[in-house]
Amino acid sequence: MRIFGKVRHRPSASWRQATDRAFTLIGDGRYEDAGALLTRAVDLEPWLSESWFNLALLHKFRHDWEQARAAGLRAVALLDRESGAPDWWNVGIAATALQDWPLARRAWQAYGLKVPGDGQHGAAATSEPLGMELGSAAVRLSPEGESEVVWGRRLDPARMEVLSIPLPSSGRRWGEVVLHDGVPHGERVTAAGPSYPVFDEIELWAPSPVPTWVVLLEAATEADRDALEQLASDAGFAAEDWSSSVRLLCRTCSESRMESDEGDGEHLDPHDHSEPGHPGPLGHRTAGDLWVPERECGLAAPAGWCAGCWTAGSRTARTAGSGGISKKSAEWCP
């Protein structure tokens, strides 16, 4: 088979050496040096889809989406199979990052996924977000740092809406949409049986205007705590009892198959904060005989809504709902 006047063959030793060294440098975070080697590999074997795939992968790591899209398209042009190639998945991620919806649609279809509106024609079928609604999954925020696994709703193969309330240290908010990678790193298994993949965040795709409040509550019973969560939910916002919904996991455990309690179908608890240490509480609903009235909660809601329940920063407890919840203090986290 001849492509660009060349006979396809196995990569040369020089190509393999340059590529292997490049990925070692990528592992060390030396992207510029790796880029020079992968560019050399492309010059050595320009007819190999792997050459362009590796270069597209590097651009993805660097969040250089224009270059990732360009290299990815060169890679898929050289494929020798019709569907299922990871080259198309990377093109889909780059296209989603750039909001190039016609290309994203084409990429997911070429990979072998069914996209809503297949077979339709016209701008309306190709120029808007795909809205594939792929169900619940988990995403690891800040995977290279002090990471946190939270639950979300998959909008399409590369985007997830965050439904948990992330801890302030994550720099993320409830309701944000994050771009995520395609290969899961870990799995969460619920008591009911279903398992959910854990994807790594690549970058923030759409911010949320809703701030996060760290709230200390005095809740005599679980029902009192539940009243706050219901109050926030009814208003279109969210509250989460971090005292029982967050557990500490080491990175090895976080990236493995872990058990998790099942929530209400929209929000699954717990979410994981990955750092050295022993696992913390495993479930959102703590047994009554172990209940501790003082709860640290996350509240995702505008300041104006919070003011209707209490005065932010006041040490004077006020009732926040009918369950007898008393607020001790609140701190806004940008």
What would your notes on this structure say?
The protein is elongated and about 70 Å long. It is α+β, with helices and mostly antiparallel strands. The protein starts with a strand and ends with a strand. The protein has a domain of 109 residues: Serine Threonine Protein Phosphatase 5, Tetratricopeptide repeat (Alpha Horseshoe). The chain contains eleven helices and 15 strands. A hairpin with a 4-residue loop joins strand 7 and strand 8.
Can you give me a brief rundown of this structure?
This protein is α+β, with helices and mostly antiparallel strands and 334 residues long. 33% of the residues lie in helices and 25% in strands.
What ranges have pLDDT less than 50 throughout 5 or more consecutive residues?
1-7, 262-269, 275-288, 311-334
Radius of gyration in whole Å, from Cα? 23 Å
What overall geometry do the principal axes of the alpha carbons give?
elongated
Tell me the structural class: alpha+beta
- Sketch the topology as an H/E string, one letter per element: EEHHHHHHHEEEEEEEHEHEHEEEHE
Task: Please give the number of β-strands.
Answer: 15
CATH class of the domain at 2-110: Mainly Alpha
**What is the name of the CATH topology of the domain at 2-110?**
Serine Threonine Protein Phosphatase 5, Tetratricopeptide repeat
Describe the sheet with the most strands.
5 strands, mixed, barrel
Note the gap between the termini: 57 Å
Kindly state the mean pLDDT as a whole number? 79
CATH second-level architecture of the domain at 2-110: Alpha Horseshoe
Helix content percent band: 25-40%
Sheet with the most strands: spatial strand order: 3-4-5-6-8
What is the assembly state of the chains in this entry?
Answer: single chain
Number of helices: 11
Strand content: 15-25%
Could you state the CATH homologous superfamily of the domain at 2-110?
Tetratricopeptide repeat domain
